[in-house]
Design a protein that fits this description.
single chain; about 350 residues; alpha/beta; Rossmann fold; 2 domains; about 35% helix; elongated
C-alpha cells in the first residue's frame, strides 16, 4: 500500500504531529507514505513530493507549521467563501489523477479546513480514494467537536492578554485585542475567558457601541484600573458591516475591527485606548500538548480508515473519542457559537460583557 498526504489551506500548530502519526502508523503496516508539497499544488505535473519515513518525521511533532508546506491559493480552490462553492476545473483534476496513477498512490489523505475538504469531496466524487483530516484554528467544522491548532491559538490569545493586562494596569488603559475568527468566535470566546477579558465581541452576537462603552464606564466607576477587550476579526455592530482591508490586488480581507473598536471606545468614554492585532501569531509556534496529542490521534485514525477501506470519510473528534464521519457531513456547514452556549452563559455570570 502506498498512500499520499497533503496539508492544505492555512498552516497551524499540530500539522507535523499528523504527518508523524500517519507515517509511524503506516510504517507499522509496511506501507509507504508520499507527502506532496505545497498542498494540492504538489499533485500537478511534474509532481513535487517527498517520501515520509521514520527518519524524515523524527522530531517534527513539536515543530509548528508543516514540513510539506501549504497554500490557500492555486488551481484547486473549490470554495471561495462561506456558502459559496466553485468547482475545480476538470483538466486540473485529470492532471492530479495522472500523478496519482504514475506514483501508484492507493489513497490520498487530505489535511485541511472547510475549503480544502470541499476540494477533497470533489476529488472523492470523481473517483479518487480520499480520507479527510480536519484542520482549522477556528474550530468551526460542524462534524467534529475539536480540531488541532485551536488549543494552540487559544493559548496564544491567553498569553497575549496576560501581557496586555500588566501594561494596561500601569497606564490605566483600555486594551483591545483583535483575534482570528471570520464567521465563528470560538477563539475569542475561549481565549477571552481564560485570559481574563472583560468584554468579548463575537461574529455571532452583534454588539451595540453604547453598551460596550457602558461596560467600560461601569468598570471605571467600580475602581478597576483597566479594561481588556477581545474582538474577533469578523465581529460587527448591530446594523453594521464586517470590517475589511483592501489591497492593491483588489482582494478584500477581514480585519480592522480592532482599531475601530479602539477609536469608538476612546471617543465615547474618554479612556486612553490601544489596539493590538495578533494576526498570524495565532498560527505559529510550538503546538500545545493537546494539539500534539490530537494531531497524533487524527493521523493514526486516518491510516486505520484506509485499512478499513472507508474512503470518503473524515476523522472526527466526538465525546472524547476519535471516530469518523462522511466528508460530506463536514463541509458546507460551519459550527458557530450559539448565543446561548454554556460558555457564553458562564462568561456572563462572571461579568463579561458581549456588548449586547
Amino acid at each position: 500500500m502506498r498512500i499520499g498526504i497533503v496539508t492544505c489551506g492555512g498552516d497551524c500548530p499540530g500539522l507535523n504531529a499528523v504527518l508523524r502519526g500517519v507515517t509511524k502508523a503506516a510504517e507499522k503496516l509496511g506501507w509507504q507514505v508520499i507527502g506532496f508539497l505545497d498542498g494540492f499544488e504538489g499533485l500537478l505535473p511534474p509532481a513535487q513530493y517527498m517520501v515520509l519515513d521514520h527518519t524524515r518525521t523524527h522530531g517534527i511533532m513539536q515543530q509548528g507549521g508543516t514540513i510539506l508546506g501549504t497554500t490557500s491559493r492555486g488551481h484547486f480552490i473549490a470554495k471561495v467563501g462561506a456558502g459559496e462553492k466553485a468547482q475545480v476545473p476538470a483538466e486540473i483534476i485529470e492532471k492530479a489523477r495522472r500523478t496519482i496513477g504514475d506514483l501508484e498512490i492507493d489513497c490520498l489523505i487530505v489535511v485541511g479546513g472547510d475549503g480544502s475538504l470541499t476540494t477533497a469531496l470533489q476529488l472523492q466524487e470523481t473517483g479518487f480514494s480520499i480520507i479527510g483530516v480536519p484542520k482549522t484554528i477556528d474550530n468551526d467544522l460542524e462534524a467534529t467537536s475539536m480540531t488541532f491548532g485551536f488549543d494552540s491559538a487559544v493559548a496564544c490569545v491567553a498569553d497575549s492578554l496576560d501581557r496586555l493586562h500588566s501594561t494596561a494596569m500601569s497606564h490605566k488603559r483600555v486594551m483591545v485585542l483583535e483575534v482570528m475568527g471570520r464567521h465563528a468566535g470560538w477563539i475569542a470566546l475561549f481565549g477571552g475567558i481564560v485570559g481574563g477579558a472583560d468584554i468579548i465581541l463575537l461574529p455571532e452576537i452583534p454588539f451595540e457601541w453604547e453598551k460596550v462603552a457602558q461596560a467600560v464606564r461601569r468598570r471605571d466607576a467600580a475602581g478597576y484600573k483597566c479594561t481588556l477587550i477581545v474582538v474577533a476579526e469578523g465581529a460587527k455592530p448591530k446594523d453594521g458591516q464586517q470590517s475589511y482591508h483592501h489591497n492593491a490586488d483588489g482582494e478584500h480581507r477581514l480585519g480592522g475591527i480592532g482599531e475601530i473598536v479602539t477609536a469608538e471606545v476612546a471617543g465615547r468614554t474618554g479612556k486612553e485606548s490601544r489596539c493590538c492585532v495578533l494576526g498570524h501569531l495565532q498560527r505559529g509556534g510550538t503546538p500545545t500538548t493537546t494539539d500534539r496529542l490530537l494531531g497524533t490521534q487524527f493521523g493514526t485514525k486516518a491510516v486505520e480508515l484506509i485499512a478499513e477501506g472507508k474512503f470518503g470519510s473524515m476523522v472526527s473528534y466526538q465525546n472524547n473519542e476519535v471516530l469518523d464521519v462522511p466528508i460530506a457531513d463536514a463541509v458546507y456547514r460551519l459550527k458557530l457559537v450559539d448565543p446561548n452556549h454554556q460558555l457564553v452563559k458562564t462568561a456572563r455570570k462572571i461579568g463579561i460583557s458581549f456588548g449586547d
